[in-house]
Each structure stands twice: as C-alpha cells, then as structure tokens.
UniProtKB/TrEMBL annotation:
The lineage of its organism: Bacteria, Bacillati, Bacillota, Clostridia, Eubacteriales. Residues 11-126 form the Knr4/Smi1-like domain. It comes from the Bacteria. It comes from Eubacterium album. This is SMI1/KNR4 family protein.
Amino acid sequence: MLIAKYGNGSIEQIEEFEIRNKILLEENYKNFLLKYNGGDTPKTILIKGKRKEIVRCLYGINTKNSIEEHMKNFESKSCMPIGEDTWGNYYAIGVKEDNKGQIFFCDHEKGYKDMKIADSIIEFFSMCKSEKIGHVRTIEERKKAVIAAENWSKITEKTIEGWQKEIDKYANINQEEVLI
C-alpha cells in the first residue's frame, strides 16, 4: 500500500490521545502512527474476495484528517475510525479487549454497522493495492481532451478551479510503501 504521509507522529502525541480518549491502541497501529501519522492514499483499493473498496485516506493525530475529528460523528464505542473511502464510509480499528486491533468497514448506508475485514492492521495493509501517481495532466492538456471529446461546454470556471486543486494536490505528492 502506498501513502502520502501526513508526517511523523510522536510517542507523546499517542499517549496523550490514548489518555484523552480512554483507550489503548494496538502496537502495530501505534507504529503506523509514529512512522506515517496517517496520510492520503490516492489510487488505492482494498480487495477482500470479490469486494473492492476505495481507501481515500487514513487519519492521523493532530493532522488535517484527524482521528478525533471523525470520532465526533462515529457511533461505535468498540471501534475507532482510522480512515475513509470516497463515499462517507469509515475504516475502523477495534479498541476493546474482544476486538482490539481488528479492522472493520463501516458502511454509512447500513448505519455504520461494523463489518470485520481484517484481523490486524498488517493484514489490512496487505489487502490494499495502490498505483503510483504518474503524470498529472495540466489544465491545457485537460482542455484539449475535453474539446477533442466535443464536450467543450463542460469547461467552466468551476471545472478549471477543480482541475487546479487536483493539480496542486497531486503534482508533487510523495507516495511511499507502508512498512510497519
């Protein structure tokens, strides 16, 4: 699995987080937070049997995508959100004695009912397949493609703004293999 990490975490951050939230995190997940502290995971899918799910990002502590920000909306007390797909569904990790470290998919259309997908964060990472971000097309290249497809009316100021945001996000992204 490839990740564009949010930065390194610290033992102090993790310990403060555990105290604040009255939980003890599983060791491999703590190591992930120390090394990556979450990150964006573009072009990443999770494969479980015939099922495929997108993994948009994994949360960190005190980051732009913070675990605690998402805990506010998360109803489960036996799990903690650790990431999301592009449709508002969560990936969560078990934090109680009977499910500690297990990974769950929580579908918003099913009331965020926890569906176990992996026994550990290591297994979860092994189920995720990523592609490297290649060439990021310029606005001019995108305009040419839209015009060639005879959809020139779809080139609006809002479209161009969206393209620019995507270019800014992905042009200099540094993806690295998650290794715990």
